[in-house]
Design a protein that fits this description.
100 residues; 0% strand; membrane; transmembrane helix; transmembrane
Length: 100
């Protein structure tokens, strides 16, 4: 059970990052007129709330930072988990719309 909690929290963080970085106009992506998130963002987004939801995501990552401090960066699994979360958050919040 002790090893299951970090895995479940990691999955929760992935789901939270995905949901917090989405914008409601992504449902209009149909592959014909609106082909991807870049086109949907350019065509529809009036109020982008990702600047508010990014700090919430950073707060969700604080337990991982505490865990890294506790293990003194010696746990390869904790390091990899946090790195994957940070890369995923960067991709969802910034890179996927910047690289259009």
């Amino acid at each position: 059970m002790k090893r299951l909690v970090p895995v479940l929290y990691w999955l929760f963080c992935i789901a939270a990052i995905y949901l917090l970085s989405s914008f409601k106009e992504e449902v209009f992506i149909n592959g014909e007129e609106i082909k991807n998130a870049c086109a949907a963002h350019r065509a529809f987004v009036v109020d982008d709330t990702r600047d508010v939801t990014l700090p919430i995501t950073i707060i969700l990552l604080l337990p991982w930072l505490y865990g890294l401090k506790r293990t003194r960066l010696s746990s390869l699994i904790m390091n990899a988990a946090l790195l994957l979360l940070v890369v995923f958050a960067l991709w969802r919040f910034w890179l996927r719309l910047t690289l259009c």
